[in-house]
From TrEMBL:
Binding-site positions, FAD: 3-18, 264-274
Keyword field contains Oxidoreductase: yes
Reported cofactor(s): FAD
Quaternary data: Homodimer.
Cofactor binding mode and count: Binds 1 FAD per subunit.
Shown chain mapped onto the complete sequence: 211 to 517 of 523
Residue span(s) of domain FAD/NAD(P)-binding: 3-290
Record protein name field: Thioredoxin reductase
UniProt-listed GO biological process terms: response to reactive oxygen species
GO molecular function, one term: flavin adenine dinucleotide binding
Annotated disulfide bonds: C131-C134
Family that this chain belongs to: Belongs to the class-II pyridine nucleotide-disulfide oxidoreductase family.
Domain of life (superkingdom): Bacteria
Length: 307
């Protein structure tokens, strides 16, 4: 059996694996796709001490670092269940195999909800983006739209208004859902515009980059186009935790509830990164949480095996 079994091979899982392996304990990583969301990222400029890198390069670096240690990497393996059997936890994989471990670290990450409108896929990373903290500076002095009027959308619009020339917030509903204080802040900004009752219908581009966004005014039925260079989709982040429902405590949004050590509601099971309640979904944050969870798992092991 593994002493630490990490489920997920993104920044959180890689950090957890390195920290666990450095304690000299038997460590494994099972990941559906080693590298995680980083693989889908182009330019990364906020991983502190690395001024500039690219997603695939960072994913490779994560794997190289983990392989410096005696870690059993099981790539292309999707976990589908977890249960306790005496002293051990058993993780069932979709392949039919079962992995046994004394502690498990869940680091299955999350994925951004998409609008599904024509052009969104074609222009991803070519103007369509999901992360204001990551990509905001790329649109300095340009025009952008934010889709979604919840807290994350309105926060993104306020954040971007300080960088871009103009930001249009587009909300499907008749009103914004964000906290009143955020709405007030956004309304006070001279270069921000709010459009409600607007259904985004298309991302327009010239073949290589975004040139506009098309929406339907849900009151009049009119179709309108806003010319711009960037679109930030902020309609929700979905944690990859469906398979954990009823096993560990999740929030209504599906985030794994963790304490400051990364402990979940299930004994011996820890969690780290975008799949948890920890705020701010970023690479450097996920790496820190991965380290925390591995050290917490190690602390748990030395207590659990005390005579
Ligand atoms: P993830 O990276 O999501 O990794 C999850 C891992 O779990 C993957 O290996 C996945 O295959 C695996 N997995 C999922 N379900 C299962 C399962 N059931 N069984 C086994 N394995 C499973 N952050 C920044 O800091 N800077 C940026 O510039 C930046 N740009 C971004 C650009 C894009 C396009 C995207 C999508 C994200 C960006 N982010 C950026 C966010 C950053 O990528 C995430 O915060 C970070 O990757 C989270 O790490 P994680 O390890 O928690 O999860």
């Amino acid at each position: 059996a593994f002493e630490v079994l990490v489920i997920g091979g993104g920044p959180a899982g890689a950090a957890a694996a390195v920290y666990a392996a450095r304690k000299g304990i038997r460590t494994g990583v099972a990941a559906e796709r080693f590298g995680g969301q980083v693989l889908d990222t182009m330019s990364i400029e906020n991983l502190i001490s690395v001024p500039h890198t690219e997603g695939p390069k960072l994913a490779q670096a994560l794997e190289t670092h983990v392989k410096e240690y005696d870690v059993d990497i099981m790539n292309l393996q999707k976990a589908k269940g977890i249960a306790r059997n005496g002293d051990l936890l058993e993780v069932a994989l979709e392949s039919g195999a079962t992995l046994k471990a004394r502690t498990v670290i869940l680091s299955t990450g999350a994925r951004w909800r998409q609008t599904g409108v024509p052009g969104e896929d074609q222009y991803r990373n070519k103007g369509v983006t999901y992360c204001p903290h990551c990509d905001g500076p790329l649109f300095k002095g340009k025009r952008v739209a934010v889709i979604g009027g919840g807290n994350s959308g309105v926060e993104a619009a306020i954040d971007l208004a300080g960088i871009v020339s103009h930001v249009t917030l587009i909300e499907f509903d008749g009103k914004l859902r964000a906290d009143e204080v955020l709405q007030r802040k956004l309304r006070s900004l001279p270069n921000a515009e709010i459009i409600t009752s607007a259904q985004t219908t298309e991302v327009k581009g010239d073949g290589s980059k975004v040139t506009g966004i098309v929406y339907k005014d849900r009151t009049s039925g009119d179709i309108r186009e806003v010319p711009l260079e960037g679109i930030f989709v902020q309609i929700g982040l979905l944690p990859n935790t469906d398979w954990l429902k009823g096993v560990v405590d999740l929030t209504p949004r599906g985030e794994i509830i963790v304490d400051a050590h990364g402990a979940t509601s299930m004994e011996g099971v820890f969690a780290a990164g975008d799949c948890t309640t920890a705020p701010y979904k970023q690479i450097v944050v996920a790496m820190g949480a991965g380290a925390t969870s591995a050290l917490a798992a190690f602390d748990y092991l030395i207590r659990a095996t005390a005579p």
